[in-house]
Backbone:
């Protein structure tokens, strides 16, 4: 169970939650997948790690002598594996008078092509790049764009995987892109040269270079601590989800501007690829629900809630998610033991950080289905994460409306 320090008394959170949330708003070889010789339904995507004969000291020595031409060649070879990601979302906010207002927003980030099955292309990115997305668009090296679906996300490690249907890509696009080669972050050495590639500031692909400043650097965001690669290669908004490469052109880290300190220059962070390989593989193999349940048959949890934004989470030592403000009597949530003050963080294994995102997830499930809901609740002054099975109910009002 994940324990998170509580930064303020719960009563203070309850009194100030709406205002703070309102103000916070806006604010190997190639990585080809190998499959068993079974049916298409049983195919499994896997990450294949590149095998290198050079020792860590050899790699560090060659890295220290890397020239501008080396960087240029590595970047050129890696570009077909990088994508630009656009997240279009709709967010709800309460103003000072308690009235709800809905806003459309758009943000940009990066992604890395890490796998392919018979039917889809698989791309890893940061969770915060696609968080709350209503629509996800992916731009490829040949400047074509396709719609993507979220396969799954892990907010604690800021990792997500999205997929693009191969049928939506032309043969020209398929021939111009490739899957990244995976290296080993555990073989990195402090002082070794690295290259960061991403969709910086949403302007298109960009390349920066620097050295590994520190390894296993503990960084705490939203009450969760991760050990990261620290580098002086520039990692700006939009670079999030992009690739940190060694001087062999292999992926060793996933850049995350979320962890960067805007008050300090020359300090960027990347998620070590060795730490999240298992998570990425698990997300790659999740089944995506592409059709919502029919109106009147959609599952119903039976709560009202407010978003715990990153600003609120940081200020009050709370996990990101959906803060339950009320539970309907006789609802699925009440039957499962969910209570006011609990913070829902995952639904059926997928991280949630907004009420609208949770509602959208639930709309793909039918009443009567049983799913796991992960929540955090205060125990002995700390937030403790727990998981409970919930059998979704029926929204009687929606069912009545659909029958009229």
Residues:
């Amino acid at each position: 169970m994940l324990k998170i320090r509580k930064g303020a008394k719960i009563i203070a959170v309850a009194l100030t939650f709406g205002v703070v949330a309102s103000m916070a708003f806006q604010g190997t070889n190639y990585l080809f997948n190998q499959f068993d010789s079974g049916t298409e339904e049983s195919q499994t995507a896997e990450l294949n790690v590149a095998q290198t004969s050079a020792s860590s000291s050899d790699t560090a020595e060659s890295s220290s002598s890397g020239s501008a031409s080396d960087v240029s060649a590595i970047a050129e070879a890696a570009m077909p594996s990088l994508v630009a990601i656009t997240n279009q979302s709709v967010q709800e906010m309460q103003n000072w008078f308690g009235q709800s207002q809905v806003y459309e927003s758009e943000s940009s980030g990066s992604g890395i092509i890490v796998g392919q099955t018979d039917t889809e292309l698989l791309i890893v990115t940061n969770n915060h790049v696609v968080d709350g997305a209503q629509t996800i668009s992916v731009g490829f090296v040949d400047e074509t764009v396709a719609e993507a679906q979220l396969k799954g996300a892990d907010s604690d490690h800021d990792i997500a995987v999205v997929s693009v249907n191969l049928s939506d890509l032309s043969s020209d696009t398929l021939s111009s892109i490739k899957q990244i080669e995976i290296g080993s972050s555990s073989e990195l050495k402090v002082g070794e040269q690295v290259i960061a590639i991403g969709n910086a500031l949403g302007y298109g692909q960009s390349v920066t270079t620097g050295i590994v400043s520190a390894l296993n650097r503990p960084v705490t965001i939203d009450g969760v601590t991760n050990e990261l690669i620290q580098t002086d290669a520039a990692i700006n908004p939009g670079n999030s989800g992009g690739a940190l490469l060694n001087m062999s052109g292999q992926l060793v880290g996933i850049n995350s501007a979320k962890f960067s300190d805007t008050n300090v220059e020359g300090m960027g962070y990347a998620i070590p690829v060795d730490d999240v390989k298992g998570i990425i593989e698990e997300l790659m193999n999740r089944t995506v629900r592409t059709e919502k349940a029919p109106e009147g048959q959609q599952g119903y949890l039976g709560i009202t809630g407010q978003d715990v934004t990153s600003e609120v989470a940081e200020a009050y030592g709370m996990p990101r998610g959906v803060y339950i403000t009320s539970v309907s009597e006789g609802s699925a949530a009440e039957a499962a033991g969910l209570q006011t003050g609990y913070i829902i963080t995952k639904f059926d294994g997928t991280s949630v950080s907004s009420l609208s995102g949770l509602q959208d997830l639930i709309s793909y499930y039918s009443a009567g289905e049983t799913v796991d809901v992960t929540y955090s609740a205060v125990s002995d002054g700390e937030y403790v994460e727990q998981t409970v099975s919930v059998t979704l109910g029926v929204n009687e009002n929606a069912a009545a409306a659909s029958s009229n």
Remarks:
- Confidence is low (pLDDT under 50) at residues 1-42, 52-66.
- The radius of gyration is 22 Å.
- The first strand starts at residue 3 and ends at 5.
- Residues 132 and 357 are 5 Å apart (CA to CA).
